[in-house]
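During the reporting period the student researcher (J.K.) took over the structure-prediction task from the postdoctoral fellow and processed the backlog of single-chain submissions. One of the processed entries is reproduced below for the supervisory committee.
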Amino acid sequence: QLELVESGGGLVQPGGSLRLSCTGSVNSLNYYAIAWFRQAPGKEREGVSCIGGSDGNTYYADSVKGRFTISRDNTKNTVWLQMNSLKPEDTAVYYCAAPSGSTYFYCPELTRNEYNYWGHGTQVTVSS
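J.K. obtained the following structure tokens:
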């Protein structure tokens, strides 16, 4: 069972930056594709970004392209989401997630039902 833990959320002013972290138990993230999702109050959970476990390929939702960067360091068992030029509409609970099945090392579509392992989330609030 893969366990994921997010950290790094907080309150930031518009235009500011935050870096979120997703960690797992020892070596557990190394081969998994890891994605970030977010859910704002009253809205559906939406996919933000994904990084492959085997190829390191990255994918982004149009709403965050050019502002967010996903990266990983398998020696630290960590995936990061660097968020720059934050906007009030980025306010949400951010979750990291991983797929299961025989192709768990590739990023599936950034839709909720493609991912089976979830963290508990970290709150990001963008407000002046």
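The committee noted the following: The chain has no helices and eleven strands.
J.K. will present the remaining backlog at the next meeting.
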